[in-house]
Design a protein that fits this description.
Elements lengths: L2 E4 L25 H10 L3 E7 L1 H4 L5 H17 L7 E4 L15 H10 L7 E4 L2 H9 L3 E5 L4 H5 L8 E3 L2 H10 L1
Parallel strand pairs: 1-2, 1-4, 2-3, 4-5, 5-6
C-alpha cells in the first residue's frame, strides 16, 4: 500500500511556540489541504503522527484536539480526499511514554493499524524529533522547510534525510514520480 505519514504542526498547519490551542488557531499551511487531497485521490493513505504535549500541559483538552482533527478531515473531504489514521501523543516530555517523538511508538501504531512494515515509508516532519523517530524504525525521514523546518535544517540530520520546501512539493514528487 502507498502509505505516507505526516507530522501535524508545521507540516499540515502553521505551528506556534505558544502551541496550537484551539480550532481557531489551527490554520492550514498554504497548499497542504490540497496536497493531502491529491495524494489521497492518487491512492495514497495519509496518516498523521503528532506530539500534543499541550494536553498534558493543560493548554487544551481532547475535545478541542478532536475538533481540530475533525476540521482537517472536513477540509480534505471538501477537496475529494480523505485523511487516514491520526495518532497523537498527549503526554508531557517527562512522562516517559513510548509514543512521544523522537520515540517511534506512534509510527509503529500506524504500521500495525495498516498491517504494513515501515521500511521506506516516508515520515514527513519539521522537527529533528520527527526525523529521529523515522530513522528509529527504518522509515524514510523527510524534512519540510515549513514550521520549524528551516531551523531544523541547520542541525545534524539523520543520514539520508530528504528535504522539500513544503507538503505540496512532496505531493508533486510522490504523485508524478
Ligand atoms: O509537530 P507536532 O508533533 O505535530 O506538534 C508539536 C506541538 O505539539 C508543539 O510541540 C511543542 O514541543 P514540546 O512538546 O513542548 O517539546 C512545541 O514545539 C510547540 O511549538 C508545538 O506546537
Ligand atoms: Mg511539527
Ligand atoms: Zn505519549
Amino acid at each position: 500500500m502507498k502509505l505516507l505519514i505526516l507530522d501535524r504542526d508545521g507540516v499540515i498547519n502553521y505551528d506556534s511556540d505558544a502551541y496550537i490551542k484551539s480550532v481557531a488557531e489551527w490554520m492550514p499551511l498554504p497548499g497542504s489541504i490540497e496536497a493531502i487531497a491529491q495524494l489521497s485521490k492518487a491512492g495514497w493513505t495519509v496518516a498523521v503522527a503528532t506530539n500534543q504535549s499541550g494536553i498534558a500541559r493543560g493548554y487544551y483538552d481532547l475535545t478541542t484536539l478532536d475538533a481540530m482533527h475533525a476540521r482537517l478531515r472536513e477540509l480534505v473531504a471538501e477537496q475529494g480526499g480523505e485523511v487516514g489514521l491520526i495518532v497523537y501523543c498527549p503526554h508531557g516530555p517527562d512522562e516517559g511514554c513510548d509514543c512521544r517523538k523522537p520515540k517511534p511508538g506512534m509510527l509503529k501504531t500506524i504500521a500495525a493499524h495498516y498491517n504494513v512494515t515501515l521500511a521506506n515509508v516516508w515520515f514527513v516532519g519539521d522537527s529533528l524529533g520527527d526525523l529521529e523517530a523515522a530513522k528509529a524504525v527504518d522509515s524514510q525521514p523527510v524534512l519540510v522547510k515549513t514550521g520549524k523546518g528551516e531551523k531544523t535544517q541547520g542541525k545534524t540530520l539523520p543520514v539520508g534525510t530528504l528535504i522539500f520546501d513544503d507538503l505540496a512539493a512532496i505531493a508533486a514528487e510522490l504523485i508524478h514520480n
